[in-house]
Specification:
Blueprint lengths: L1 H16 L4 H12 L9 H13 L4 E5 L5 H8 L6 E6 L2 H13 L6 E5 L2 H10 L5 E6 L6 H10 L1 E10 L15 H15 L3 E8 L6 E8 L6
Parallel strand pairs: 1-2, 1-4, 2-3, 4-5
Antiparallel strand pairs: 5-7, 6-7
């Protein structure tokens, strides 16, 4: 019952505020045709990413976990002229699909896909001294998000925002004795973030077409906690 209501509300909101978006719809079709898992953000969450990018005035965005490029397109649409998006993807097959989708969206010259394990590409990125990222979106394997988040903070500036997707996991987050590597990874990340004096953070629960989940939101140097 709840799932049906959540889905209906999401579809209603998407119909009002997103309407028909051939670029995003073709991205979903191309990803499905290539056999990619349907684990991309929902349309409403994709719009949220675009709005957040605009709200924080992001000039430079980092994404960890590209998949088929759906969220990268949403983030890229939030950039001003001259803005740049770097997105990291471990699977070359996924990256190939994403690259074509980003080109179809007119973001070929804006978004750069880097292929490899993020725990290798993030240190490499840091050595390039690319300047701080204004917004980072982490939507990759959960076992290593504590490490991804640490790198995101290092590559940010005071006021930069970091979003980490899929941290509630339909309530499994509460299972302290869970043997699920994703749940254990999420709990380790959140416990580490709670002790991290470089950031202020919170967790937002969500429902919708992706069922019951949520994301963590952090701002570097915000000083919002007591």
């Amino acid at each position: 019952m709840h799932d049906r209501i959540w889905t209906a509300v999401d579809e209603f909101a998407a119909g009002l505020f997103l309407g028909h978006d051939e670029v995003l719809e073709s991205t979903l079709r191309a990803s499905a045709d290539a056999g990619l898992p349907a684990i991309q953000v929902s349309p409403c969450h994709g719009m949220m990413l675009c709005l957040i990018a605009k709200a924080v005035g992001a000039q430079r965005i980092l994404e960890i976990g590209t998949l088929g490029g759906y969220s990268a397109i949403c983030l890229g649409r939030g950039l001003p002229p001259g803005g740049r998006l770097i997105t990291l993807e471990v699977d070359p097959r996924h990256a190939k699909v994403a690259r074509a989708n980003l080109a179809r969206a007119g973001l070929e010259g804006v978004a750069e896909i880097r292929i490899g394990r993020a725990l290798q590409t993030l240190p490499q990125l840091a050595t390039e001294n690319p300047g701080p990222f204004d917004l980072t979106f982490i939507d990759a394997d959960k076992e290593h998000i504590a490490e991804y988040f640490d790198w995101a903070v290092r590559l940010s500036r005071p006021g930069s925002m970091i979003l980490v997707d899929n941290v509630v996991r339909e309530g499994a987050l509460l299972e302290a004795q869970s043997i699920d590597p994703a749940v254990r990874g999420v709990r380790r990340f959140l416990e580490q973030a709670a002790r991290d004096t470089r950031i202020s953070a919170t967790v937002i629960q969500t429902v919708g077409v992706k069922k019951y989940d949520g994301f963590a939101m952090a701002v570097v140097g915000a000083g919002c906690a007591k």
